[in-house]
Amino acid sequence: MSPSRYITACVAAAAFAVTATTATASASGVPVPPGRFQSGPVDWHACALGADDELGRALDARGIECADITVPLDHADPGGRTLTVAISRLKATDTEHRVGALLLNDGGPAGPSLHMPLTKAAAMGDVAGRFDLIGMDPRFVGRSTPLDCGWDLGSSLVRSAGSDRAAYRQEVAVARELAERCDRAHGDVLPYVTTRNTARDMDVVRAALGEETLSYLGYSYGSYLGEVYTQLFPGRTDRMVLDGVNSPDHYSQNLLRGAEAANEEALRAWASWAAARHTTYGLGATRAAVLATVEHILDAAAERPLRIGEAYLLDEHVLPAVFVGGLGSDLDERRAALAGTVRLLARAADRERVEPSPALAGQLEFLLTGAGSAASSQMTAIVCGDVAERRGVGGYWRAVEKSRARYPLIGPLAGNITPCEFWDRPAEAPTVLDNDVPALLVNATGDPRTLHTGAQALREQWRSARLLTVEGARQHGLYGEYGNACVDGHVNAYLRTGRLPAHDPACQA
Questions:
Q1: Among 404, 423, 420, CA closest to 320
Q2: How, if at all, do strands 306-308 and 312-314 pair?
Q3: Under a CB-based contact definition with an 8 Å cutoff, are residues 500 and 438 in contact?
Q4: DSSP class of residue 3?
């Protein structure tokens, strides 16, 4: 989970026994939606919403269709208020070997996924032709019925507590104000902005497509969504790939809690990489020197916000998210991008006048202004609707102080208070997995977002599953994203045949 996956940000259902005319009760006590939510035909249409809709035009050019599926706001009240969920479809071309629908989720929480048939078909190669590739924007996300709390920032779950108690008190005020503003704007729907309801929507989509089962590919938070779906709809899945496994035991309102060590290790590994390229980036010729540069930037922001261009003031609460956002991959391109940003931040810390790169400007626009309001509102509403718990204002500060010495960058971010502290308690208890699902789990040993230990724990529970481990990689998101032929080959072989490896396979970074 990150502003795009994990910090962008780690989905969902209730078990319905479907009949054509009768609403029965599921094991979870949620009645089955009536036929209008379960039957087609789906009204497929062009994806472009206008001449300026670049995504829509790209989907149309590839032959991808779009549709809006009506679902209940409250699946326990199928005759009540409704909303729409936007989906896309790239139809199977190998009809002789067609498997069925493969639903795709890009993570988040609140990651739009309408685009994914366009981006994942290339990684799948000829295997893509065996599936109808289905992208789905979760409820209240992307082109689905929207939700925006009207915040003037986009970093509600990835803010740092700051350097002292006074700075933390500012965070308490921010978290309380964001929660109250969201309640005023959307209090009537917030109880239904949850992973479990997104999973229920998935099953409505499954039925609307005329499929008895769904195959599924989910990244990061999307792995959690897939896990919830299997729990609420047993027997409704075919081939499942969970990449960057976010186990329910590690899913909480503090998205990076438990991953402090992995992120600090990723920071040190990046510092070693940057030190070896000191002549290019000038951040220090040793790892220690590069880390000292990072510390200098953090200290300067705590003293006074860094001015980046004319538009942005980057303070100690938001700055750590810029660093952490660059630590999700060990690919040279991503490490170089972080090094370029840190070089600019070092100049700003010296109070030089600097202009942001286009990439950094986009990141700051998301983190610091209302441009990130919708995405942050959606992410926060999902997490708080799933697992909000009251820990007490002092509890967060004690956690921050306890972790700061060992994890000076990540600790104050991972332990900070969030709007969930002031949110209404979830309408449903968090999902507990007590099942066993044949699936292919994919994780890197050094993943700084979804830990390999979490993937191992799910593998231990799901004895029918297999865990594909990428040894030595500090990468979040592997299949079709890491350029690793071993990973892509294993996943495609499973999608092609439906047969899992005999043993847990491994690939090298």
A1: 404
A2: antiparallel
A3: yes
A4: T
Q: Can you tell me the distance from the alpha carbon of 91 to that of 339, in angstroms, rounded to the nearest whole number?
A: 41
Determine which helix (DSSP H) or strand (DSSP E) holds 440, and give its type and residue range: strand 440-444
Q: What is the largest CA-CA distance in the chain?
A: 71
Percent of the chain whose pLDDT exceeds 70 = 92
Q: Give the Cα separation of 29 and 153 in Å (integer).
A: 38
Task: Give the residue ranges of DSSP H helices in 35-192.
Answer: 54-61, 116-124, 165-186
Could you read off the pLDDT of 346-358 as tens digits, one per residue?
999 999 999 999 9
**Distance between CA atoms of residues 332 and 276, nearest Å:** 12
pLDDT at 486: 98
In angstroms, rounded to a whole number, what is the distance separating the alpha carbons of residues 68 and 145? 10
Angle at CA of residue 6, ends 504 and 137, nearest 5°: 95
pTM over 0.85: yes
Strands 214-219 and 100-105 come out as parallel
Tokens of 496: 């092609």
Alpha-helix residue ranges (DSSP H) falling in 233-372: 260-275, 278-281, 287-303, 319-325, 332-349, 358-368
CA gap 504, 381 in Å, rounded? 36
Cα-based distances in Å from 168 to 1, 165, 176, 294, 415? 23, 5, 13, 21, 11
Cα–Cα dist 374/193, whole Å: 13
Single-letter residue type at 264: E
- C-beta separation of 83 from 101 below 8 A: no
- What separation in angstroms does the CA of 2 have from each of 88, 105, 159, 324, 428? 23, 14, 12, 9, 25
Residue 481 tokens read as 């994203």
Task: Please check the confidence at residue 19 and state whether its pLDDT lies above 50.
Answer: no
Nearest CA to 329 out of 229, 444, 249, 247 is that of 444
Spatial neighbors of 228 by CB under 8 A, at least 6 apart, are 11, 12, 13, 195, 196, 199, 248, 431
For residue 25 the two structure tokens come to 């009760």
Output DSSP code: residue 430: P
Cβ-based neighbour number of residue 62 at 10 Å: 13
CB count, 10 Å around CB of 292? 14
> What is the average pLDDT value for the chain, to the nearest integer?
92
Q: 362-377 pLDDT, tens per residue?
A: 999 999 999 999 999 9
Structure tokens at 466: 């297999």
CA count, 13 A, side-chain hemisphere, 135: 29
* Phi, then psi, of 497 in degrees rounded to 5: -105, -25
**DSSP letters for 7-54:** BT---------B-SS-B-B-TTSPBPP-GGGT------B----STT-H
Burial of 464 (0-12, 13-18, 19+ CB in 10 A): exposed
